[in-house]
Amino acid sequence: MPRDNILLDGNAELDRPGADQALAPADRHFLLICGPFGPFTRTLAGSLRAAGARCSRVILNGGDAYDWGRAHSRPYFGAFAGFGAWLSDLVHRDQVTDVILYGDAHPYCVEAARVASLGMLKVHVLEQGYLRPFWITLERGGVNGNSRLPREPDAYRRSAPCLPAPTDEWLPPLTPPAAWNLALYHLALWLATPAFPRFHLPYQYSLPRQAWGHTRRYLSQRLLRPIHRRRLAAALDGPGPLFFGILQRPGDSQLKVHSPFPSSADFIDQVVKSFACHAPTSARLLFKSHPLDHGIEPHARAVAAAAAAHGVAGRVFFTDVGDLYKMFPKGAGAVTVNSTAGLSAIERGLPTIVLGSAIYDIAGLTHQSGLDTFWTASEAPDPALYDDFRRVVVHRTQIGGAYAIREGIERAVPEVTRRLLSR
């Protein structure tokens, strides 16, 4: 059945590949592979077991072991090439019925999804929320570019009227605890390398290099704060229309898997080239780094080099500080690969263009006529369609809460458990 013909009412599961009925909890065995940094998966497993289901986790490295513990663990010590065969044997021996992945682009998760498909197992994918900051994503089969959400605006217009308006609930700041969970996970991963010597780390840069990059970036932001703030203010308050270039985190799967750009530098160069050729001469372009950027890739130099090469030096800027969401009211438009920050721009009525694959790249929400026309004839988002889109996306894929903090986990886990057992 085509994606856009799937019913979106309360009696049809948009994120289900079929009309199979859920098994009783006692007949379910959930196997987790990868997970958000911190205690979320351990808490979710306890909730699933309390409901009568079995739950275990594949342990690929010391970080997994630190977050999960020893009970109900299934450690894998082999090379990546043998993971699929080992997992196929495990799911058969342990009578696994469901596989829960964190993201669908990690190499081990891609292989797990393949094995699960061959074994006719249900695949559930957790991910950061499509809507930020206090939501998480749970979909059947895949997320982001692999999501089963429709890409036709009428599918949302038809379905939204029967759905309640979602309510955002406030949680404490997430970035500091998320960074702490990330640091502890990778420290444990590094310390346990002798126990998992053949684990395939899917990162472009080594852990020590990333740690040094984060440290250097943090010190720069703190020690040079006045300089950063003055430069940002100059870029924001200058004359002429201001466009934002939203950078992904380097190495992000959304950049590597769901976009045509090998790196952020390639994205920067293409955007600046189009801006130089087609934007009004009074226009300005400001690139903003991702909040969790590791600081290794020299975005500032890439922006300056692209601006000089295309003859727009003095009109193109870069900032590594500031709240992008607070900057949007000053903007005339936003360019992104597929960042969820693009959804925030749309929510604020800012014309937005997506250059990769994103669930919200829909006529009526994003500019559909190509990058070169965006600078002078951008298509503004339809607020009514955005409201319909948000209602459906929340109803089908979003759960209130967060992975990084206790309050967010306590809010999310009961609903994640309910949805997993109902599918």
Account of the 3D structure:
By secondary structure, the protein is an alpha/beta fold. The chain folds into 2 domains: 3-173 and 397-421, Rossmann fold (3-Layer(aba) Sandwich), CATH 3.40.50; 225-388, Rossmann fold. 41% of the residues lie in helices and 13% in strands. The protein has helices spanning 40-50, 62-68, 83-93, 107-118, 153-159, 175-191, 207-223, 225-236, 253-256, 264-278, 299-309, 324-327, 341-347, 371-377, 383-397, 406-421, and strands spanning 29-33, 54-59, 73-75, 98-102, 122-128, 135-140, 242-246, 284-288, 316-319, 333-336, 352-354, 398-400. The chain has a 7-stranded mixed β-sheet, sandwiched between helices. The protein has a 5-stranded parallel β-sheet with strand order 9-8-7-10-11, sandwiched between helices. Helix 13 links the parallel strand 10 and strand 11. Helix 5 (153-159) crosses helix 15 (383-397) and helix 10 (264-278) packs parallel to helix 11 (299-309). It is globular. The two termini are 19 Å apart. Residues 1-19 have low confidence and may be disordered.
